[in-house]
């Protein structure tokens, strides 16, 4: 089970749901950007401890320049996403913000096809369409 991508994806969804609920409660009376900084520090320390405890640290010299570039870009995108997410949570209801945030699923599918050459069949496109309709239905008041 630990080698299954679906196990880890479902676990990610559970933690993402908890993230929304905990963040919504936690940002009460605090600047959303500062809250994002605190969250980032916690993530950084947690990951450092996990790497240390499991011996998974690797030499920085072993990473290719291409990997560095795209990991830096990914980090910048993550930071921007978190800043926007916390701001949205501060302004809106978690039950509306989280589904709209998950519109990223649709965007990943479209970008995966257009930029990475991934292939989706009719069933998968139908699922992506249903997610889109679901997000609109959940967000529209």
SSE inventory with pairings:
Layout lengths: L4 H22 L5 H23 L10 H27 L2 H8 L2 H13 L5 H18 L2
Helix pairs in contact: 2-3, 4-6
- Give the assembly state of these chains: single chain
Fraction of residues in helix: over 70%
State the low-pLDDT regions, or none: none
Radius of gyration, whole Å: 18 Å
Mean pLDDT across the residues is 93
Biggest β-sheet strands, sense, barrel: none
DSSP helical segment count: 6
String of helices and strands: HHHHHH
Terminal Cα separation, in Å? 40 Å
Count every beta strand, where a strand is a DSSP E run of 2 or more residues: 0
β-strand percent reads under 5%
Question: What is this entry, summarized?
Answer:
This protein is mostly helical and 141 residues long. It has helices at residues 5-26, 32-54, 65-91, 94-101, 104-116, 122-139.
